[in-house]
Amino acid sequence: MKRRQLFTFLAGLTGLGVTFYFQRRQAHAVNITPLPEAVQGNPLLRFVTLGDFGTGSSAQYNLGKAMADYHSQSPYHLALTVGDNIYNEGEIEKIERVFEIPYGALLARGVKFRATLGNHDIRTNNGDPQVAYPGFNMDGRYYTYTDGPAQFFALDTNGNADWDHQLAWLDRELAASTAPWKIVYGHHNIYTSGHYGVNQARWAQIAKSFFKRYGVQLYINGHDHHYERTVPIEGTTYLTTGSGAGLRAAGHSAWTAYSASRLGFGAMEIYPDHLVIRGIGPQGELFDQGVISRT
User: Fold this and answer.
1) What is the CATH classification number for the domain harbouring 124?
2) Range of the domain at 119
């Protein structure tokens, strides 16, 4: 079978829900937005984000090493996970192989992981063992915390989530927030150009209205296995970082600033009036850089 035919065949299977974990070898374009003059010196906060990572594969381990190498150059103390922390069924007994070993160097340096649950995570006991696992630092299935100039809102975006209470909670917490930067994250996408596309679920539509009302600058998700950053949509940038171990094809929409089917994690720096988003690959290569203006 020729390479083009093989890729078409695999893509067809992926559309049926079969995920293949592989790293594409061809060269990728990069998208590096120049930084404004106001972005200089040390940031007020630096953090990273990754999703769909818990496979125990060599791809995951390589990216974990890249995250540790990045930490050596640009120290950070916070890492957000956007779900599917343990494949395939969320079995907590795999936690050493899929979390503690690949990110051991970061854990030893005091990096605090703040997790959310993906659809694979809730297949075992509805994800309760992961909520209780100390290394994920989850203050419930959904929770909020403040770090420096940013307040973070971690969501349970699964289909069986308690959406009536969670959306009322999100409304109250966002309304009460005085943080200059508001960042919401969860597993499921709202805007992507990949396999799952634009989310039409009720929770996503209500969440978007909250984002606009309360000035949420950034929503981070996984679920789609690629990297994608949008332009601001009604004031909110949407970042997909579901490429922590495996890949699916990435498309491009009118609101896409950059998308690529490539392994990577997101690295963020917050300054008083700007937030810098970077996409970094398993060799430490910078492949995307964008800037959000708070004003």
Assistant:
1) 3.60.21.10
2) 41-293
Question: How many angstroms separate the CA atoms of 239 and 248, rounded?
Answer: 16
Q: Using alpha carbons only, give the angle 291, 293, 295 rounded to the nearest 5 degrees.
A: 175
Rounded to whole angstroms, the Cα distance separating 258 from 268 reads 16
Q: How high is the pLDDT of residue 242?
A: 98
- Is residue 62 within 8 A of residue 103, CB to CB? The reply is no
Work out the angle at residue 197's Cα, subtended by the Cα atoms of residues 295 and 290, and round it to the nearest 5 degrees.
Answer: 30
Beta bridge pairs of residue 288: 31, 279
Give a yes or no: residue 120 inside a domain: yes
CA dist., res. 157 & res. 116, Å (int): 9
Indicate whether 5 belongs to any domain.
no
- Number of structural domains (the chain) is 1
Q: In terms of residues, how long is the chain? A: 295
Question: How many other CB atoms are there within 10 angstroms of residue 283's CB atom?
Answer: 11
Q: Is residue 36 part of a domain?
A: no
Question: What does the pLDDT profile of the chain (295 residues) look like in tens digits?
Answer: 434 443 333 333 333 333 333 333 334 689 999 999 999 899 999 999 999 999 999 999 999 999 999 999 999 999 999 999 999 999 999 999 999 999 999 999 999 999 999 999 999 999 999 999 999 999 999 999 999 999 999 999 999 999 999 999 999 999 999 999 999 999 999 999 999 999 999 999 999 999 999 999 999 999 999 999 999 999 999 999 999 999 999 999 999 999 999 999 999 999 999 999 999 999 999 999 999 999 7
CB 16, CB 242: distance < 8 Å: no
* Domain assignment of residue 4, yes or no: no
* DSSP state letters, 259-292: EES---EEEEEE-SSEEEEEEE-TTS-EEEEEEE
